[in-house]
Amino acid sequence: MTGLQIRRMVALTTLITGFALGACSPADPAGSQAVVAEQGARLQAGPWRGEIDHFDRVLPFNFEVAYDGDGKPTVAHLNGPERMAVEQVIDHGDGRIELNFPSYSATLVATHDGASMRGEIGLNRRDGIQRFDFVAEQGPTHRFFADTTSAEIDVSGRWEAKIDYPGFGFDQQAIAMLEQDGHEVYGTFMTDVGDFRFLFGEVRGRELYLSAYDGGYTQLWIAEMDDTGQLSGIFDSATYADATWVAKLNPEARLLDPNSVTWLQEGVERFDFTFPDLDGQPVSLSDARFEDKVVIVVLAGSWCPSCHDEAAFMAPYFEEQRDRGLEIVNLMFEYSPEFEDVRAQVEAFRDRYAIGYDMLFAGDSSRMTRGSLLPALNGIFAFPTTIFVDRRGEVRRIHTSFPGPATGVEHETYIRELRAFVDMLLAERPDA
Asked: What local confidence, expressed as pLDDT, does residue 150 receive?
């Protein structure tokens, strides 16, 4: 058994022992072994550290509790440089608390005694709610290990990686972009269809540990470096459990050109669609209000982390540019073909980013059905996919995926290029 396997077993045993000493669901707070939920107990401000029982492995996460001027608690999940504010904090005042993300239909419910908590995380997925038990305590700031061990390797740099998903029968090319400061590491993995957002962790000896929990998604990456410099390990998330990955340092690693993946089918002269808005009214790209406008059409989903990243940019960008003749339309592809099943989540997504442009319900995001909803395209390979339509109604560019803030320079480059491209389209005359 390797050192990696031993530490994994010890960590899991510690977490399971903790659950055995206080095994009680938040739905059964009266259980004799539960964290005692004191009437009026105040959640202590400051740093907190939690551990999720994640497919028989420990997934650690960090968050911070503070109080606003009205004395109401605020909570932010911490993943390296990212502070993700919890959308909805419900303090019941009796030792029960909820930390919810309605825009993901994701929940965290717990009982607490002020300095520790125990509860359950619920993450919405296509096949239902994925539930994980967790424990947390106030004070610790480390991610994986309280006792730091000297890092014997440096994983900083750009890594050419491959992720294998045996349960789904496919693999995926990726680029890992990592930065190391002492034993701490942060970064992300970027693929042709999006990135894995902010990851944070550490190097321990020759082993790399990374995790993320941002309220909507969970991730655990563990690897060991061999004598050739290759990283090999496992990747678990609420969507993909028991995946594996390998990576070699390669500063020249590149993915597909995102402007070459999706295109209009041969013979399609005009890109158009008709879908209902959130009030049920049909909207078409050929409607008069889009005439002579530059239109950005975003294929998105409220369940999609990269779509959240894009919305965080697009919502204020639209307000900046709308008077110049820019329109944006989101086509929302969701986990259900019935809008009423997802209405609350889509509306929460809109409200979270104060989206002022049209959001239309396109239908089911399933790989089996989504392509038929926009037959003018050769396929829908990633969410988001962004379609740029000029003032004459012609598609000028289709960009697959969105490099989020976690990708650093990749994100900054894309935003700069997008702004320059849209500026050019806005400067064109419709009759030119």
From this structure: 87
Longest Cα–Cα distance in the chain? 76
- Compute how many other C-beta atoms are within 10 angstroms of the C-beta atom of residue 347: 15
Closest CA to 22 of 112, 108, 98, 92: 112
| Distance in angstroms (rounded) separating the CA atoms of residues 79 and 213 | 7
User: Which residue stretches of 365-427 are H helix?
Assistant: 370-373, 409-427
Q: How far apart are CA 247 and CA 83, in angstroms?
A: 28
Q: Which domains does the chain have, with CATH numbers?
A: 3-138 (2.40.160), 157-249 (2.40.128.120), 274-427 (3.40.30.10)
How far apart are alpha carbons 284 and 262 in whole angstroms? 21
- In this predicted model, what pLDDT tens digit does every residue of 101-132 receive, in sequence order? 999 999 999 999 999 999 999 999 988 899 99
Among 240, 251, 93, residue whose Cα is nearest residue 159: 251
- The half-sphere exposure of 239 on its side-chain side, counting CA atoms within 13 A, is 11
Tens of pLDDT, residue by residue over 42-73, are 999 999 999 999 999 999 999 999 999 999 99
Encode 388-422: b = buried (16+ Cβ within 10 Å), e = exposed: bbbbebebebbbbbbbbbbbbebbeebeeebeeeb
β-pair type (385-389, 243-249): unpaired
Non-local (6+) Cβ contacts of 174 within 8 A are 161, 162, 163, 189, 190, 191, 245, 247, 255
Could you give the C-alpha distances from 338 to 177, 200, 209, 216, 304, in angstroms and in order?
38, 37, 40, 22, 18
- Taking 70 as the threshold, does the pLDDT of residue 234 lie above it? yes
Q: Is the pLDDT of residue 308 over 80?
A: yes
Answer whether 0.70 is exceeded by the pTM. Answer: yes
Average pLDDT estimate for 10-17:
36
pLDDT at 6: 34
Per the DSSP assignment, residues forming a β-bridge with 210 are 201, 221
Q: Is 236 helix (H, G, I), strand (E, B) or coil?
A: strand
Residues whose CB falls within 8 Å of the CB of residue 155, separated by 6 or more in sequence, listed in order: 178, 180, 185, 203, 208, 225, 231
